[in-house]
Amino acid sequence: MFDQFDALLLARIQFAFTVSFHIIFPAFSIGLASYLAVLEGLHLWTKRPVYIELFDFWKTIFALAFGMGVVSGIVMSYQFGTNWSVFSDKAGPIVGPLMGYEVLSAFFLEAGFLGVMLFGRKRVGPGLHFFATLMVAFGTLMSATWILAVNSWMQTPAGFAMNAAGQFVPTDWWAVIFNPSFPYRFTHMVLAAYLTTALVVGSVGAFHLLRRTAPLRAGTMFSMAMGMISVVAPLQILAGDAHGLNTLEHQPVKVMAMEGHFESHPDGAPLILFGLPNQVEKRVDYAIEVPKLSSLILKHDLNAPLNGLDTVPDELEPPVEILFFSFRVMVALGFAMLGLGLWSLICRWKGTLYSSEWLHRLAVLMGPAGFVAVLAGWITTEVGRQPYTVYGHLLTAQSLSPIAAPAVAGSLIAFIIVYFLVFGAGTFYILRLMGRLPRDPQGHLGLGPIRSAGITPAAGMPEGAGHSHPRHGNSGGIRHGA
């Protein structure tokens, strides 16, 4: 029944499906590992129990996310041998060692210290346990380094030569790893991971502030998350702009498709805010645009010329519709995160960070935004590379295994069923854990009228002291250390 389908298209859909499931877990675990290290470091420094209580709460969630990320990543690697064996043969001399380095230096580091971090605090002492947590956090960053080095090399290949068998062989490993797009892609992805985690932590904190279940713990995590977003969101926008300029230099066709520029603009290109790309007719229908703003952003000159897709053969154009919308989703969510961070700063300055109900509702709503933005950015990166696997050198159509469409379709259906069952159940369980933040200890149950009184710092007051019962007026407060 699948004979009429194209094996290449099905293989691409399968890889896109599995990588979309996979990427959300590392994006979360990278940031969460660093957050756990910060929490434990703050506990060692301040001796405040709230930090280690939050550490214990989030470490279970991290373990689940880490496990699902490992499992989904293993499935992806098998596809290199099943669906993309030609790519594996031709790019293996470069991609293989880098993937091996990721396993040896990063995954072993994470796995080796993960057990100590999860179960060893009472066995190895606080100092060694903190070191284990740092090593897990460092391991997640190392893992991202090697994977992004592979992906960046496929986007902007460097430091290689072609041998007689048509394989990519390394001539300069430094150039392979630190290829032209790697620093920008690595910075952009790591900041995205930190933003994703901060949005999740902030969402959970806001949710429990709205429920009034554990104001001390919820307020602490909410304050830390909003502070992180306030700092990282503007940095991410700057990093994204730098990454875009690098992409314009090395992958100009991708930028043409992202911007929706079917035509060249010799006297300044407009920024198309929204429209409906029509790749058949080579135009953007119902375009809403700002004249010459794209030239200003990309070339810092209103009148700078920008080439369009009319300079590119049709067979080398990426799917414009997908790129056009995924790029705008990513950018829109980035500015929404910036807005959330600015609002939290205003509330912090006004002393209403813990009592602003509308801020908390927005934070809950923005909880999944980091995952959506990561997926949109990943789609923009990978679809924009098409029709190449190794940009400018190896076409995706040339990378496919000699495999029949029914075989790919059968495994794709199996992946869809198993992924939604297994990872759906895992995600559901993580969400249930997030909704079960233990109440504050020593009777700090969050019974006070926090919407009228607010949860505000109270200098010199014990943790949780002064939190009023509904019968006792509105003078209560809780001191937060974040």
UniProtKB/TrEMBL annotation:
Residues 459-482 are annotated as: Disordered. GO terms for biological process: aerobic electron transport chain. Keywords: Cell membrane, Electron transport, Heme, Iron, Membrane, Metal-binding, Transmembrane, Transmembrane helix, Transport. The chain crosses the membrane at residues 20-45, 57-78, 98-120, 127-149, 189-210, 222-239, 322-346, 358-379, 403-431. GO terms for cellular component: cytochrome complex; plasma membrane. It is found in: Cell inner membrane; Cell membrane. One of its GO terms (molecular function) is electron transfer activity. It comes from the Bacteria. It is a multi-pass membrane protein. It holds the Pfam family Cyt_bd_oxida_I. Belongs to the cytochrome ubiquinol oxidase subunit 1 family. This is Cytochrome ubiquinol oxidase subunit I. It comes from Rhizobium straminoryzae. The lineage of its organism: Bacteria, Pseudomonadati, Pseudomonadota, Alphaproteobacteria, Hyphomicrobiales.
